[in-house]
Amino acid sequence: YKDLQPEGFDGSLTLYVVPTTDGVATVACTAASKPAEFLPACEEVATGVRLVNGEVFALGADEDYLAQLDKTISALNSGRKKGVSALNKAKTPSKQATAAQSLAKTYARARKQLSGLTISPAVVDANASVRAALLKSESAYINLASAARNNRSAGYNKARADVRAGDAALKRALKEVDNAS
Question: Are 17 and 25 in contact (CB under 8 A)?
Answer without folding.
Answer: yes
